[in-house]
Queue: 2 jobs
Job 1
Amino acid sequence: MKDRGSFGSKFGVILASAGSAVGLGNVWRFPTEVGNNGGAAFIIIYILCVVFVGVPVMVSEFVIGRHTHANTISAYSQLAPGTWWRLQGVSGVFVAFLILSYYIIISGWTFFYLTESAINSLSVSRDYSAYFNDFVSNPWEPVIYAAIVMLMVHVIIARGVQSGIEAFSKIFMPLLLVIIIVLVGCSFNMPGSSEGLRFLLQPDFSKVTPSVVLSAMGQAFFSLSLAMGCLCTYASYFGPDTKLVKTAVSVSVIDTCVAVLSGFIIFPAVFSVQGVEVNAGPGLVFITLPNVFIMAFHNVPVLGYIFSGLFYMLLLLAAVTSAMSLHESVTAYVHEVVHVSRRTASSIVSISCMLLGVTCSLSFGLWSDFTIFDMTIFDLFDFVASKILMPIGGLVICLFVGWYLDKKLVHDEITNQGTVPFRFFQSFIFLIRYVVPVAMTLIFVNELLFR
Ligand code: PFF
């Protein structure tokens, strides 16, 4: 395709890819997992998973995307014409579509909380559990907020790779990092916050079971946006001089730092308030934190106002940059294969995803009794996408790059045709041929048998 977009600078490449990786998974899911699974012990295991599993898979996706300069489905068709490998491309785009449909609903929740904190409504003492449940079970409100966030994502994607995705990431990713640093500073200064820090920094290995290791691996995969066609699609817009390994390492470092720093925001704040449970599950950011903000700042409410506003702004920015990459993965396919303009492709994706999103949203209220395999629609989508198709996708990507593709092609792509030295090529091949496939199989079996 001649008129494909491309990123304009290496800085843009890193910020856009990091934008995909840094998302609700970092600020919301990671601290919850840390709280449930032994604090620092979990963080150490998580980092090992990122290094030995996440980075190799990310480099593999970059190889596929940059070599073909095509959407994910066409990429597999080009590299392995007439074979079943194409199904991995189909699965990637399908998973991106599925995840976007529920991810956008949660993004809508964060937008609602941001607007509530902007009008100072989160400074009122009330039962935040009921408040949250009332909101998410309302048939209209969450859908309207999600639709507004989808509209923002839609406008960015329709503008194209350089003036949409890259331009937005260049402004808002640095802003996101500044917000995190400000919030960490505020959180450290809360009275009693040192207990939260101790919790984060003192590893409790007694809580580490094989299933904790597998959930660290699953979390690393989700957080790095792997196996959904997103990074493969972004890599298809990389220039010939983009260094793939360096980019993968930079993105993983940024993503992991943001996740750990989110823990540094949340735990000192939570521990500074008596009687709040640390492992409050997914309600942590929507139920526990509003209470924490009120209690911690009851003497200086204006600080609570600023803290909560910045926090939900952080969540929303993280959500939008990730949703952009999910959207782009599907839009690139529709644009290039169905041969419609980028704007039309983007509209098709936004509208159809929103329609599916409505069913996810209703599963918190009107349709909460409707279950399939004992799961609501929302849970089912999450289960199929991130627990089943994601590990299978990780496995297939590694088999494809490690065993199917010509090693010379992989080497040439990683080293930019021999111009960038890569001393660990053999270790990389070893990891994606043996280590990652075993890890992916274990995650998958664990999800299926012990869910
Ligand atoms: N990595 C994002 C997060 O941590 O929230 C979520 C995500 C984005 C997952 C894009 C998958 C993806 F392809």
Job 2
Amino acid sequence: MASRASVSSVAPVDPGRASLTTLGGVGPALAQTLAKLGLREVQDLWFHLPLRYEDRTTVVAIGDLRPGDRAQVEGVVEFVERGFRFRPQLKVIVGDEAGRALLLRFFHFRKAQVDQLQKGTRLLCFGEVRQGPQGLEMVHPQYQRVEGDVPLVVEERLTPVYPTTEGLGPRRLASVIARALAHLPVDDRLELIPDDVGRPLGLASLRDALLYVHRPPPDVDLRQLEQGRHPAQQRLAFEELLTQHLTLRRMRAAVKKRSAPVLKSAGTLRERLLGSLPFALTKAQARVSAEVARDVARAHPMLRLVQGDVGSGKTVVAALAAVAAVESGYQVALMAPTELLAEQHLRNFRAWLEPLGLDVEWLAGKVQGRARKSALARVADGAAHVVVGTHALMQEGVAFARLGLVIVDEQHRFGVHQRLALRDKGAEGDSIPHQLVLTATPIPRTLAMSAYADLDVSSIDELPPGRTPVQTVAISSERRYDVMERIHAACMEGRQVYWVCTLIEESEQLNAQAAEVAHAELTAGLPDLAVGLIHGRMKPKEKQSVMDAFKQGELAVLVATTVIEVGVDVPNASLMVIENSERLGLAQLHQLRGRVGRGSIASTCVLLYQTPLSRLAKERLQVMRQTNDGFRIAEKDLELRGPGEVLGTRQTGQLQFRIADLARDGHLMPEVQRVAEAMMRDHPARCERLIARWVGDAARYVDA
Ligand code: ADP
Ligand code: MG
């Protein structure tokens, strides 16, 4: 028996892992409903956090209600009407002591309910107030009957509102959660961040934090709570960020354990490529390129993100990595999210690598028939050294002879699975290719630490010499004729101009039309200038010949849709006009603006906007006028738009936080990183428990 006792003292039963049916009042049916919310164990209820809070601690006089309020009122039923106008409807008018009335409207109701709501019944209602045709009303308020002469009982604390599902009322869910909270342990079965690692940032204990958010005390600061800035919420956000970080680190560790081709060579191709370039690498490029070279010379896969502002010269860093792979006898795949960007890479890579005797193939959706067949054959038998393309690279039927390096540009537009799909085309047993990810949108540091914890990050934090900062002005589109004069003046000095028509909708056709209209307007308004047009509906050959004409200086003005966002490079273009700039996000504006300021001439970007401007649009234009620094712009972007938007598809399944918000809680990241390091080193088992607690089933993507 002694052994039994010692077992139980070493591994006390974890009340958090108990099934929900162990809680009083939870039978199989309720357990099934709860499972729909992903709630299976007692600890799942502890971590089922309120979305927001309702204030039922006071009763508001009907006369004081304003549309949009969520409020509690008390009144006596004065009038009931059961009607049918388009659909069944129950209208109940309640009046309060001051003689003010409020309409309650129900579209779904049972007969028992109607019977209850007799004239003279006293009600306590809670709901959202809105302006109806006959005055203020509440649609489907929650209500309860109160005895006529008993003093009212209101809640003492704020009422948490939980995410719920059909068939599970808010009160029922709240009461199950309250029962689960009674089992919160006081020891390290709950608190998984050990004392020797330190209580993060002096935040509350996990137990206190959970009790606080589920049952905020009466004197709570509601504003702070609603913003998620209370220390209790910060404690939970910390743990969630920590867990997400650990998950990504675990994923990285798993990949790093696999093997990869050792790409180590004499560096002859590298020297020849460097010798053929018309410029020397910047210090930043040389540093990042050396980091990459070191990574790929190891027998384990590289997972490296290279981030650098628009125009910082990421392409050549990628090309240097590519020649290292080729010289070691491996193939390289380069994938870009749009055809135009992929074409731009193709042109660069062909110009740089073909003189060195390398074969560069092209695979995009548009490559069909014989051309596709021949490209596929050369990729499969190893004759192709480098393959450049779009999503088409990941398709079935694309097989590599010896894929050693995968380069993905503009990673945030691809999902993780897409990157993995391409990577797995090079898998051979345990061995997988090295991965190099390029991103043109600088990612705020805090976001990078979180979202890219599965990648090592290198920054090209320096622009090639000779660039002049772009001056940015915002001008109302009512003054477009002044802008035309400016264009004329610039062209008379031998400069070139972009006129960008921005996305009207997600319709290439409408955009093409808008560009055609602008093209006609500029051609008429600037009769002595050659005005060209480029948009996404044109054939690649047509696009190319227009681009070439602009590059050669045969066109003074180029009217374009946002297809020129990425990859276009004409140093003599020193003026850019962006129409309807108020519609674009910061990242896109910054990308576009990066097309000018590439030479030594002072450049200008004119942001044309339509009035009236929204507050947000005003703020964006302001930021653009103030700074050219991609990192500052990215920080601001994160603040204005939130991380999901900034990262595009990448957040799928990864940045769906329950409580953390990277824009608000990013300041926690350095400490998250420190705690993560310590826990991975000293408490690996606790890391697993954290992941089970916060990520649960979703942890499966870790095996990706
Ligand atoms: P991005 O990082 O935006 O992809 P690119 O690789 O397209 O930038 O480079 C932008 C431009 O700068 C290209 O014309 C490229 O040839 C040029 N460039 C790259 N590196 C240097 C350098 N070290 N010195 C001068 N020009 C450079
Ligand atoms: Mg680029």
